[in-house]
Amino acid sequence: MFGWNMDIGVDLGTASVLVYVKGKGIVLNEPSVVAIDKTTGQIIAVGEDARRMLGRTPGNIVAIRPLREGVIADYDTTERMLRYFIEKACGRRMFFRPRVMVCIPAGVTSVEERAVRQATMQAGAKQAYLIEEPLAAALGAGLDISEASGSIVVDIGGGTADIAVLSLGGIVVSKSLRVGGDKFDEAVVRYIRREYNLMVGERTAEELKITVGTAFPEGKVGETSMEIRGRDLVSGLPKTVTVTSQQAWEAMQEPVEAVIAGVKEVLERTPPELASDIINKGIVLTGGGSLLNGLDTLLSKRTGLPVHVADDAISCVALGTGKALSMLHVLQSSGVVAATRKIV
Question: Which part of the chain has CATH 3.90.640.10?
Fold first, then answer.
């Protein structure tokens, strides 16, 4: 069985939860969805099994996402979900409580921070550490943030976009926007409702975003239209329509522009010495939202800086939590992370 030093890194995301186990890498990547029986309060399914139930459950079962915009919206369900994922990653018979490092968005309040700490401890951690997402994303993307040189990371998750300039192992300037993959999906749902009088679900909108969505239509190659099905709001009957890449781009313009405005604001607040480093290094994009077709091209065009999407953009934050656990002494001495111990 595992020894005393079992270390786990958790990317507790609005859309999905990734769990990193020291020595094993990422062992779990599942949607942050929980299906609950309303009458008994019992959990029916967690993760991928629960996601399949979204929008398809009978009256007594409700599939919920306990995190909204990067923070805990339903504390009790989040704790139960965390416990389930930690047990699944460690094996049910946890002889030793693990040390757990959890990611939080850069702009969370102390109340939200405390909620994440408590949920992690209640879920069975011996010690809970918190690390800000852009810092973990930079570590996961392989950036050397310990040197006296500026790097800028844009982490676009399901609920938030975290933009930060890093130097000497810490965050110099940052901004957390409540804009992410979910907002892209919601924009698509609104657009289709407005243009076609058609009601589609979140999953359909997400599929459309991935298949034909783009932030830069001029550079779009590959599939340019997609058939989607939903409910006609006039007749109330099922209906199929075809949506093009151009329309998907129109639908998502508002949230995409919000991300670009956020990046520009952080660059404007960056000290000149670090700004000169950023010109050489460019911007690093991480998170699932950064995989939106053409986003890197658009960002590069608007800022005039080179933009690179990290190799394993979705896993960057989880990998970064793992790296952070192995360099805890460095991060603690610089005041980046602090521990919460379980008092038995």
Answer: 181-252
